[in-house]
Design goal:
Blueprint: E1 11-15, E2 21-26, H1 27-36, E3 40-45, E4 52-56, H2 58-74, E5 81-86, H3 92-107, E6 111-117, H4 126-139, E7 144-153, E8 156-163
Parallel strand pairs: 1-4, 5-6
Antiparallel strand pairs: 1-2, 3-4, 6-8, 7-8
Length: 191
């Protein structure tokens, strides 16, 4: 934005400090008008012909603009890509553990990259990897959906999932008490 003496055009359309149209004025006349009010002449629309300038307090304007940007940034969610790595012959407990992590990532509105890594002769049985990814899709159906379908990238079968639209966002702090000991204490050893 150009302000005061940096405005080099001969004529500008001026909007007053109260928001009312003043009209077409010579740039010097508009500058004198702004200075007499103790304010700045700010070019708000440089592309229009003639450029539109407003009489305002530039410092206050910049401060309010940065305040609005900070507020907008505060309410914005940054989507990150999380990865869950599986193997074709993964144990049941490991599988459920990793699917729980994927569920937590989806509830936090992060993308989840699910990959099945093949080693050696496992590469001949890619159908096991596809079945595993299909199982992941069905297990996470209520919280996520497939964004990028399964495809081979070298020895790794990869799929990307995203959270379902309209899903309630879960903050990471909500899941912290999951492993807490109940208030009654540990079970007694009487018997």
């Amino acid at each position: 934005m150009r302000i005061n003496d940096r405005i080099r055009v001969p004529q500008v359309r001026v909007v007053g400090a109260d928001g009312q149209q003043v009209g077409l004025l010579a740039t010097q006349e508009a500058l004198e008008m702004a200075r007499s009010a103790g304010l700045d002449l700010v070019e708000v629309s440089p592309t229009s012909r003639p450029p539109v300038c407003r009489i305002m307090d530039y410092g206050k304007f910049k401060y309010e603009q940065s305040k609005r940007q900070r507020k907008a940034k505060k309410h914005q969610h940054v989507t990150r890509m999380k990865e869950v790595k599986l193997r074709p012959k993964i144990e049941e407990h490991d599988y459920t553990f990793k699917v729980q992590h994927a569920r937590a990532f989806l509830l936090a509105r992060d993308k989840v990259k699910v990959s099945v890594t093949f080693r050696g002769r496992e590469l001949a049985h890619q159908d096991l990897g596809h079945k595993m990814l299909q199982r992941v899709i069905t297990d996470l159906a209520e919280v996520g959906q497939v964004e990028v379908p399964a495809r081979m990238e070298g020895r790794i079968l990869v799929m990307v999932m995203i959270a379902k639209p309209g899903l309630k966002i879960k903050s990471p702090k909500e899941g912290e008490t999951a492993g807490a000991v109940p208030a009654s204490g540990p079970p007694s050893r009487e018997g």
